[in-house]
């Protein structure tokens, strides 16, 4: 089932007595979520991603705009009639019911022609439990389960009524690092197996990038960019998106473009043909640095972190917005840090990989690209 | 070394506990034991501090005393009617209060008023409402007659009328505390459970029965237990309504009987009073144990 969001806007009345301006949680959200995809809503806290999810679930009503499931307008439909499964951040498992009773709960609500027989219900619950691999925990109570198991029960409860759309609110935020990795693959697998259109909310870009078919990056209620994770990573539309995606984060330098060349602190760093002259921010991905003794960009070396697969060179630069410049260098070839001593300080020099460097207008912070 | 340290530490602990232990010992434990002892001393005379012998005669006397049996019956009727009724009504009102938006604070205050009002003052108000005097039939009777019924003397009239007033009064007096507890219990239920239930299309009634009720069941249980104990100890309310000569009014309670045995017209029988008190204690203990057993199955913490 595809989900279409049309000019979706949600304003909350301000609680501030002096300032009566509404808080705009979601501002003019337009997006068509293709059928059967896993979508990650991504953004810092307070960016409106959870509000968007709640709008889709129907728990809150939009101020403006429409929501379609397939061809049906569901904007004014109550949550229970939308055919959604919702997994809450804290799972919201009923503590006094066993796992089985929790999973059965949504089925027992069905009325009229949808009503199932008792054996049918038990069969469905069993199937859902098998899908998330908790069938041996059916008689336990939620508090006797680990966080990861509770998460699975919550997903089983959301899936048991065979929803058209599955919504997950920060599904991994309550799990420890190892479990998070495991569970996100689990979510991916379950989504692939059920082919249910799934939307999940997260503030963790790694989480969103790793499992989503598409990610939606939001900030202050406004959608910044929508696309496949790699696409967004490789082609951020503005400085915010560039800085939000990627660990370690992108290195940002202030610089100037003049006569088709990029200058950082007066050094002619690389070609920037076709880009109008002016002040820019230059974002360089950590993997966009290449060690070169004669390289165009010189940084003061702070230290080297060896991480096995690759090494991370930590240095500083006067034009850098981040306190340190972090460069990731692969270790396939023996690395010799081409350092030159300049009066006690060690300088390390890099060349920049062109497609790992993004230029942003210094005022609008929008990406500037070559005019072809 | 370690052993010495431990004893020094525990000595300190006992020292801290000493004031509490002393007070509890003198004013709680000792009197309790004394009551047990009194209840088996036959013909105890408090003036001469003498008694004839030891045995169960006091119990036999009390259990055959028609006044005690009347008090027992009254107390049981009061308990059986008021505890479930007040708890159910308080639950209903709390759910109502919880679901209304505006005026919630106002109604909360209104429902809480009986709690801060003096028992005797309230008793007086009930007298005015229910009592039949030479000059007036009382407000309630006026209402009954207005609807075409016959007037009833609720204070000095038939037993059922008096019992009705007592139960009505008790329910009214104990409800505010229950409402207070239940509204706070209701607002402690995480909204996420309701959202989850809503998304699953759960009907209001089912949400209440399957989610709300189990979630607040520990509080309900607490109210039932304290409600039972409180109702078994009823005395001042009865006095407020029917005066001090409760035996004559046929509205005595067990605690009232104990009081009468000690200080009333028929006073001066501490042994009988002690026996009645021990019987009350046994009843309350039994009921509370039953409550605990039931709660193990029904209450989810």
Structural features:
heterodimer, A: 372 residues, alpha+beta, Rossmann fold, 2 domains, 6-stranded mixed beta sheet, 6-stranded antiparallel beta sheet, 8 helices, 34% strand, B: 301 residues, mainly alpha, MetI-like fold, 13 helices, 2 strands, 77% helix, 1% strand
Could you please describe the fold and organization of this structure?
The complex is a heterodimer of chains A (372) and B (301). Chain A is built from eight helices and 21 strands. With 372 residues, chain A is of the alpha+beta class. In chain A, the strands form four sheets. Chain A has a six-stranded mixed sheet with strand order 6-7-8-3-9-10, with helices on both faces. By secondary structure, chain B is mainly alpha-helical. At the A-B interface, β6 and α2 of A face α8 and α9 of B.
Counting DSSP H or I runs of 4 or more residues, the number of helices of chain A is: 8
Instruction: Give the class of chain A from helix and strand content and strand pairing.
Output: alpha+beta
How many individual β-strands of chain A?
A: 21
Q: Give the overall silhouette of chain B.
A: globular
Whole-angstrom Rg of chain B: 24 Å
Across the major sheet of chain A, the strand order is: 6-7-8-3-9-10
CATH top level label of the largest domain in chain A = Alpha Beta
Q: CATH superfamily of the largest domain in chain B, please? A: MetI-like
- Average of pLDDT of chain B: 85
- Beta-strand percentage of chain A? 25-35%
* Interface with most residues: A-B, 24 and 19 residues
Report the oligomer: heterodimer
Termini of chain A, distance in Å? 39 Å
What about the largest sheet of chain B? 2 strands, antiparallel
H/E topology pattern of chain A: EEEHEEEHHHEHEHEEHHEEEEEEEEEEE
What's the CATH H-level superfamily name of the largest domain in chain A?
A: P-loop containing nucleotide triphosphate hydrolases
State the helicity of chain A in percent bands: 10-25%
